[in-house]
Amino acid sequence: MKRLLLSKSRLAFLTLALSATMLGGPVQQATAQERALVIARDMDVNSLDPARAWCDTCQIYNTSVYEQLVTLDKDNKVQPLIASSWEVNKEQTQLTFKLDPAAKFSDGSPVEAKDVKWSFERLKNIKGNGAFIADPISSIEIPDAQTVIVKLAAPNSEFLNQAAAGFLGIINSDVASENGALADATAVDKDTSENWFLSNSAGSGPFVLASYEPNSELRLKRNENYWRKAPVLPEVIFRQVKDAVAQAQMLQSGSADIAMQIDPETAKTLEGSDVVVEKVPSYNFVYIALSPGAKANTVKLTPEVREAISIAIDRTSLIDFTVGGAGRAIASPIPLGFPGGDGHEIPAYNPDRAKELLAAAGAGDGFTLKSIYPDMNVYGVDFSLMMQKIQQDLAKVGITVELSPVPFANWREAANGDHIPLTAVFFAPDFFGTSQYVDVFGLSEGSVWAKRAGGEVDPSFINAETAKLREQALAAPSVEDAEKLWFEAGEQMAKARIIIPMVSPDLILAHSPSVKGVRYSACCNLPLAEISN
């Protein structure tokens, strides 16, 4: 899971000023009229190979340097990119894409069907985190240089949306193959191109890789051979800045044009300056989770006990406490704005009813819940502060919560080992579609949270219906039919009270007043080609 991470530390003003100066040194001007765009962010880059990259910065990179068959507009509607048109069969098991004959890679060579086939098969065979998108593909046919026929193993009404995801960026297969990249079944073990991708790119996007220094800087430059409208920016520079306050200082000093991880608290320090601060709804959310199968449970986490825990938490005050009100309550683990995500009833804060439920479940005298959670600040939510608030709320109904913040790696080990009675986690979309949420949170046998919640110990919460609803939605004849099925899946996931969403934090877009075209995108995170300065 790719995520935005913000440091909890707050540096002194003098240190911040020095950091901003060091991190925001002079940027080479392209011409008198053009200048580079500098983006301050905590870069979570794990790879610059589209088949291996798995991070938020990677999402921006993959959709700026490489291109996909299609993309999404600001309303999440599919738009042509490398594919100028497409057809989907009635069964939604076959998609035929016609490539734009004008499309070409940065070296001037044409983008052809063989490159699409090679790129999709490589994603599947590299078996990285993003491979799940390519796994449903059963075969790819390329009858000519401009036609790609993708056949799926089962109906998938979301595959067209998935084709906009950065993982499915089209790579120049000739160039990549010459530098150790493989697409066949041996790729997972024998592909030797990852280091090459750290210094080179082979895409058709508006930008190309200029240089990358891990934990320091990522530079992109304009693709002078770009086949569509050339981007305004001659160069984009990502600078590694972990702390939100340091990012804000860079904006104020003019050494950064965009800061991508400003939290609500830090945003207040920008008030009165000329920095533009926009708060927009995001598709990210933070949730708590209960594990009935956890070894450390002191009482059985029955549906009644889980319901009591849910309604004992004051979500309104939690949102005020954690993000200063800059977020939305969310009832189901499907983002607001995604198919099936809207319209679910937010559990009302009712500590008296919670006490009644606990008493009826034989837990009226109180009990202790052990809580292990990642020691993180994600999307502006400090997990320790949030869990302290939840600790206070649950104490009012007789539940004592023992808080144990740990590094993320330790959290993962605990969640997958003896499981955790009460924890806190986060999620951001990998594409615009609801199936990913049913896959992760649907609690079908063998699913991510069926395992993490200890389904092998206590199978009472395992739900076979959500998987069926997922299959039906992906095969639905219309968007409206699919929406109803996704909504029902969302209702079932919410009512289980295994996954209990807390807040969908607003995204803060902070940038200098000269920068135009900044927007949040479900497929591309930050569409660089739309920005000017």
Automatic annotation (TrEMBL):
It is found in: Periplasm. Residues 1-32 form the signal peptide. Residues 77-444 form the Solute-binding protein family domain. Pfam families: SBP_bac_5. Its main location: periplasm. It comes from the Bacteria. CDD domains: PBP2_NikA_DppA_OppA_like_7. Keywords: Signal, Transport. Belongs to the bacterial solute-binding protein 5 family. PANTHER family: PERIPLASMIC BINDING COMPONENT OF ABC TRANSPORTER, PERIPLASMIC OLIGOPEPTIDE-BINDING PROTEIN-RELATED. This is ABC transporter substrate-binding protein. The lineage of its organism: Bacteria, Pseudomonadati, Pseudomonadota, Alphaproteobacteria, Hyphomicrobiales.
